[in-house]
Structure formats: structure tokens, C-alpha cells
Q: What sequence folds into this?
């Protein structure tokens, strides 16, 4: 639980340091992307700290490209 609180504290600290400068420059799209990416990163970091196994995107990429690879292998051989 201490790890999760520490991660949330660091995320809040990063937000407090970065968002005011973005607000002053009126970068609404940048603020949205900042919060989106920070939220995803924070969530993944919390899951890893809790010992939850996170699947790698390589499995999805392999499933998508296997049929294409097989087709090209048949055509070109």
C-alpha cells in the first residue's frame, strides 16, 4: 500500500510541476495528452508494483502478423 501511495504522490508531484506552464501557454491538447499518458503510466506502474502480470503487446502483434507471414511464405516459395 505504501508503494501505491508513493507512486500516486510522485504522479501528483509531476502534475504540479508540469501543468501550470502548460496552462499559462493555453495548450489544451497538450494538457489532455499529458494527463492521458501520465494516467496510463501511473496505472501500469501501480499494477507492476502490486505484482500483477501485464501482458506484452508483442503477443497481439505476433497474432496479427502470423497469417500475413504465412501467406507471403506460401506465395514467395
A:
Amino acid at each position: 500500500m505504501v508503494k501505491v501511495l508513493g507512486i500516486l504522490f510522485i504522479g501528483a508531484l509531476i502534475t504540479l510541476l508540469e501543468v501550470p506552464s502548460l496552462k499559462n501557454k493555453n495548450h489544451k491538447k497538450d494538457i489532455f495528452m499529458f494527463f492521458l499518458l501520465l494516467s496510463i503510466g501511473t496505472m501500469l506502474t501501480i499494477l507492476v508494483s502490486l505484482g500483477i502480470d501485464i501482458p506484452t503487446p508483442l503477443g497481439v502483434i505476433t497474432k496479427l502478423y502470423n497469417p500475413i507471414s504465412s501467406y507471403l511464405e506460401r506465395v514467395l516459395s
